[in-house]
Predict the structure.
Amino acid sequence: MAEVIGSRKRKEWEPKQVEVKEALDLRHASLGPRGYKLKPVKTGTRTLEKILRAQQQPEEQLVAMDHDGDDVEIAPAVKRQRAEGVAYRNVSGKTWKGEAEKRASADRNAILGSSWEKKMQAKALRKSFQEQKQAAVDAQKEKRKAAAQHRQAVKDRKKQNQEKSAVVQKITNAATVKKMLKSKKQRKLLRTADTNS
C-alpha cells in the first residue's frame, strides 16, 4: 500500500524479487558411477522386483486387488530384466557381469595332455629317483649307527680298564662299612665289586 505524505506518494517496502529460473532437482539424483545408488534399497532381489513392477503398473495392481476371482494369473519370476541401453540385466543387478558365452572348462585343451608312454616314462624316472634317494638315506643311517656303536664300545672298554687298574681295599668288617656310610666323603669311596676274579 502506498501512503500519501504531503504531495509525494511513499511506497511500502518490498523485498527484492528474484527471478526463479527452471532448474533440475538433484537432491536425490545418483550422480556416482553406473550402478551406484545414494540410498540403495536394502531388500532382497525378489522384493526389489515386486517394488519395480508395482511402480511400473500401479493401475493393474489396483484392479487385481479389487477383483476377487481365482482366474488371476501370477506372472512367473523373471530371470532377466530389461534395462535401457542394455540387452539384459542379471537378477542380482550386477550389470557389469556379461552373459557367459561358454564354460571356463571349455578353455582346457585336451590335446595339451601328455601321452600314456610319456606318463609312464615320467613315473619310472620318479620311482628310480626315489629308490636312489632312499638308498643314500639308508647308507647314511648305517654309517651313523656304526659310528655310535664304535663310540659305545670304546666307552665300555675304557670303563673296564679303569676298574681293572683301580687300587682297591677289601673291607670284610660290617662295622667299618656302617661307619663309612655315615660320612659323605667315605660313602663315595665305597663300591661293591666282584672280588673273586
About this structure: The radius of gyration is 52 Å. Residues 27 and 38 are 10 Å apart (CA to CA). The chain is about 45% helix and 5% strand.
